Amino acid sequence: MTKFFTYQTLAGTGSAQSLGATILEDATGLSMERVRIYVETAPIRFTLDGTTPVAATTGEKAEIGDVLELFGGEINDFQFINETGTAASLKMQGARGKRRDE
Fold it and tell me: CA–CA distance from 16 to each of 12, 31, 44, 92, 97 (Å)?
């Protein structure tokens, strides 16, 4: 079972944003290799390749209740924006473990 070391909540805005420093590394400075994101309150648009998502047009859409799993470079390249005018809330957990199939 994966052990999660970091936790963060981010509020979506009308501007694209990346993950915060709190989720990217633990208290000892070790980087996370896996991040699980729970989408709450409103849908988002997101990208995993470093490009900037645009509300309602650019990026993949994640709905309320969706869970995103990021691994490796996706963690630093992830950006998101509110899909609509309603602010999204993202709850996140970070782990140092890797997927079993890696």
Answer: 8, 23, 10, 17, 28
Longest dimension (CA), the chain: 39
List pLDDT tens digits, range 30-77. Answer: 889 999 999 999 999 999 998 999 998 999 999 999 999 999 999 999
Cα–Cα dist 44/56, whole Å: 9
* Short-list 82, 46, 42, 39, CA closest to 61: 46
- Which conformational region is residue 40 in: left (phi greater than 0), alpha (psi within -120 to 50 degrees), or beta? beta
Q: Where are the domains of the chain?
A: 4-95
Contact status, residue 12 vs residue 81, Cβ threshold 8 Å:
yes
- Provide the whole-model pTM: 0.88
Location of structure tokens 């924006």: 81
CA gap 65, 55 in Å, rounded: 19
CATH superfamily of 4-95: Jelly Rolls (2.60.120.10)
